[in-house]
Design a protein that fits this description.
By secondary structure, this protein is an alpha+beta fold. It has one domain. 28% of the residues lie in helices and 18% in strands. It is built from nine helices and ten strands. The strands form two sheets. Strands 1, 3, 4, 5, 6, 7, 9 and 10 form an eight-stranded mixed sheet that branches. A two-stranded antiparallel sheet has the order 2-8. It is globular, with a radius of gyration of 18 Å. The termini are far apart.
Length: 260
């Protein structure tokens, strides 16, 4: 059953007065290789039914490819991770934004840090380019610390701001029950993302794709704006072992766009 929702956006009531960081980060959608081939054949990513919200959605994360492939214990080609990177303007197509992985909240993995009556609605952010930049400013201080998952306590007063206090505790002390998806802004998009549209800007993929006929055909038709970022694929590595590689490639992409 979908969670009770919406509710008063208490986090945003405090956060909206924060000055945002200057640089906008990109949005990352991580899929396995099999799903990526489907997207290539269909020329887009389609929403899938979400049990938490009771509707079809596509999930992305701000600045970091934080999603983990479900079959992360299988060392086989179809489970290699692939990251599709989108321009910040993708928020124009979105329906919701949160300061963490909403699925983990629904699954009670943040319960050690939350009051039992706190809801997703209490933490919801407005769907805007400024909201994640304000989150980065308040809880990380800079884009670099955000990309490297180095949170801090907000400098602004947050005494008795219970949602803010909960995030601070969770960001700083959240493992092992919750992984670093507790420290990343989530975006929900309810519509298909066509790979032919201008907001798709980069692709991170295993380098052995370059030997396949379907990938060669796909790349030959890509516009020059789409940056290709291959990473080395190893025969006995499982999907989760590529996580820092993926994040490093996306950080390098941001640095190429002037992030300091």
């Amino acid at each position: 059953m979908p969670l009770g929702y919406p509710d008063r956006q208490r986090l945003w009531e405090w956060l909206q007065h924060e000055a945002p960081v200057d640089h906008k980060l990109l949005w990352c959608r991580t899929v396995d290789a099999y799903a990526f081939r489907d997207a290539v054949e269909r020329d887009g990513c389609d929403p899938h039914q979400c049990e938490v919200f009771g509707e079809a959605l596509i999930y992305l994360f701000y600045g970091r490819p934080a999603f983990r492939i479900a079959e992360d214990d299988i060392a086989i080609g179809h489970s290699y991770p692939v990251v599709l990177v989108f321009e910040n303007e993708l928020v124009d197509k979105a329906t919701r934004m949160f300061p963490f992985d909403s699925g983990a909240f629904a699954g009670k993995r943040y319960s050690d840090f939350m009051h039992k009556r706190m809801t997703l609605g209490n933490f919801e952010l407005p769907v805007s380019p400024e909201a994640p930049r304000k989150m980065v400013s308040a809880f990380f201080g800079s884009n670099f610390e955000y990309l490297r998952t180095v949170p801090r306590r907000p400098e602004r007063n947050h005494k008795a701001e219970f949602e803010v206090e909960a995030l601070v505790r969770m960001y700083l002390q959240g493992r092992p029950k919750a992984d670093d998806r507790r420290q990343v802004v989530e975006l929900q998009v309810p519509v298909r993302l066509d790979l032919s549209e201008a907001y798709w800007t980069a692709l991170v993929y295993p380098d052995h794709f370059e030997d396949s006929k379907w990938f060669k055909s796909f790349v030959s038709k890509l516009p020059s704006r789409v940056e290709l970022l291959p990473y080395p694929a190893y025969g006995d590595k499982i999907a989760k072992e590529y996580q820092t590689t993926l994040e490093g490639e996306v950080e390098r992409l941001h640095r190429g766009r002037g992030l300091k």
